[in-house]
Amino acid sequence: MWNPNSDGRQMEKRVVVGRVRPTWARNLPDARDDDDKNDQEGVMPHSEPPSPTEPWGQQAKQEDKYDAFGKVMLLGDSGVGKTCMLVRFRDGTFLAGNYISTVGIDFRNKIVTVDGIKVKLQIWDTAGQERFRSVTHAYYRDAHALLLLYDVTNKTSFDNIRAWLGEIREYAQDDVVIMLLGNKSDSGLERAVRREEGQRLAREYQVAFMETSAKTGLNVEAAFAHVARSLVAKANPVDPSRLAVRAQPSQEQRSSCPPCS
Ligand SMILES: Nc1nc2c(ncn2[C@@H]2O[C@H](COP(=O)(O)OP(=O)(O)OP(=O)(O)O)[C@@H](O)[C@H]2O)c(=O)[nH]1
Asked: Annotated region Disordered: where (predicted)?
């Protein structure tokens, strides 16, 4: 097993100060005490990955307090924009320029507040390349939610979604939250997959759907908020209407359909 200390990274037991789980949060994925890590730029070229269940920790900061915790994995073919999606969500920037393919797997944390509830998302960025599949499969079982991406300019990445859903069925928990995302929706004329095709596929598999752009930021926050809200609703299923997908309108929608959301 890969040892997190072998490259000099400090491993400390995380101490959570005065965090009380409210009643509604009792059934939520456990807010583990060791689920934090050093936030570093870039992805780590591991020859062996960190354990799927035992990420290393660091001292908790007061502002890190949260009510619920969920592990989210980004999946999809190589080049669909998984890393860019994570960087856009985490740091609010776009990784333009040279495309460097992810090697192995890595994660970042971010706390989102939905309906007044602070949900800490631990987001795992996976390598889309075939040769890393056996590594990433080991992480599926631990995931509470999966964001499955295709590239709207790349028909093959869309056609491969069925195969990805097959892998999810094989390796992930039965009740995992799944959301399909058609990324690079900013690409205009290069588009090869229509929005309706994505919607149809999502309906067929009964998963939520949005078109996103890591470049412009369209629906990036909304997608992660939907996941966070779904995790909370799953643990406390009082009001299913809270699960409605609240997508931002795209450019075309804004001009043609003002009330769409
Ligand atoms: N136009 C546009 N380009 C994007 C978008 N998201 C990502 N890209 C570009 O697509 C390329 C691949 O992005 P990555 O985020 O590295 O893709 P990935 O899915 O992580 O790829 P792997 O690490 O190989 O699995 C990069 O050149 C990005 O700049 C987007 O929303 N719009």
From this structure: 1-61
Which residue range forms the structural domain that includes residue 104?
Answer: 64-256
Give residues (CB < 6 A) around ligand 1.
78-84, 95-96, 99, 101-102, 127-129, 183-184, 186-187, 213-215
Single out the residue of 147, 157, 222, 219 nearest to residue 190, CA to CA.
157
> Which of 146, 121, 148, 125 is closest to 44 using CA atoms?
125
Sequence-distant (6+) residues with CB within 8 A of 101 are: 78, 79, 127, 128, 129
Please check the confidence at residue 171 and state whether its pLDDT lies above 50.
Answer: yes
| pLDDT at residue 216 tops 70 | yes
In a domain? residue 113: yes
Closest ligand 1 atom number to CA of residue 43: 23
Report the C-alpha gap between 179 and 208 in whole angstroms.
5
- Would you say 101 and 129 are in contact if contact means Cβ atoms under 8 Å apart? yes
Amino acid at 74: L
CATH assignment at residue 194: 3.40.50.300
Is the Cβ–Cβ distance between 104 and 45 less than 8 Å? yes
Name the helix (H) or strand (E) containing 233: helix 220-235
> Is residue 31 domain-resident?
no
DSSP conformational letter for 142: T
Question: How many domains is the chain partitioned into structurally?
Answer: 1
Q: How far apart are CA 2 and CA 105, in angstroms?
A: 13
Q: Is residue 236 in some structural domain?
A: yes
Residue 168 lies in a domain: yes
- ipTM computed for the complex: 0.99
Q: Are 103 and 132 in contact (CB under 8 A)?
A: yes
